[in-house]
Amino acid sequence: MFKRILVAIDGSAASTSALETATELSKDYGAGLHLLHVVREMQVPLNPGLMDAYEKLERQRHDLLNAAGEQLLNQAKRMVGSKGIKSVESDIGSGDPATAIVAYAAKHKIDLIVIGSRGLGHVESFLMGSVSRKVSNTTSANCLIIK
Fold first, then answer.
1. CATH label of the domain that carries residue 57
2. Which pLDDT tens digit goes with each residue over 35-78?
3. Nearest to 7 by CA among 94, 83, 106, 112
4. What is the domain count for the chain?
């Protein structure tokens, strides 16, 4: 039924639960597992005089957040490997997390996206939108949202 499963990793408790669920599904279906961590981009300052400082800060931020993302992915790969999953791919995306997840899923022909929900209340979820909601509303892949 599922040949390729994508799990979004962000270090949250819901993300960890999503990884555990995706690992079990991967074992059950013999599916390849894809791990994706997305680094959000900073907003550009409105003051053009701050561009040099912004660019320096963005380079430092990018390096730090990518290193942290690599650590998260390496931890996830170790956990998945300890469960006997052999077909694992991982990547770090950037930009809007929902957009990056949907684009990765389309590019890699993902059958199922497993993603954690942060459990926002109704008002916050409506006002801010959530990554899991955006992903499930915009992807053509099946989605499983883990609370």
1. 3.40.50.620
2. 999 998 776 666 777 778 878 888 898 899 999 999 999 999 99
3. 112
4. 1
